[in-house]
Amino acid sequence: MAEEQEFFTVASSARCKVQVGACRFFGSVSEIHSEEDAERFLGLVRAEHPDIKNHAWAFRLGSGSKGLARVFDGGEPSQSAGPPILRAIDHLQLTNTMIIVTRYFGEKQGVGGLIRAFHRTAATVLEEAGRRQELIYITVQALCSYEQLNLLLHELDKAGARNLLQNYQQAVEITAEIRPHVFDDLLRRISDGTKGSILLKRIEE
After folding, report:
1. Can you list the domains of the chain with their CATH numbers?
2. Interior CA angle at 138 toward 134 and 141, to 5°?
3. pLDDT digit string (tens) for 169-194?
4. pTM of the entire structure?
């Protein structure tokens, strides 16, 4: 399976209000990068709506085997709130995204109506937020002598490396970020140029 090269997330945080009959649904969306971010965002929304105890939410983090999704119905009937919110996120193929929907009760609604309302609110706030593409980078590391440093830096520069860090001790430890699709070719060039004396390795986060 080919390694993913990019992902999509929200372009900005956003808020919206959706009226469904006598009920008001408030949608909030934010980019997140961890479960701790999700908890902080939930705390922020709770503070914005102090008179509401339960908030339905969903988030997706990461991708592939490292992907994580969570849903919470917030006191609504099972599967009527969190999953429809997550479907709105997945419809746009987003990750690192959390949506919270806060309902102000005005009338009773059936499960089908709640599913539609929560999905509609999530889709509306995502339209407000917009979508942006992010390129995926992987972290690589190599240890080289001072005599090999210029060659290694040259090859990393050719590969479009970013966030390069150099740690000078008895040898030089180089850490950088590169696009996944250039790794194999970069590894080959460095190995050929140094007769295998430098090993470039991926650092799994």
Report:
1. 6-134 (3.30.230.30), 137-203 (3.30.70.240)
2. 150
3. 999 999 999 999 999 999 999 999 89
4. 0.79
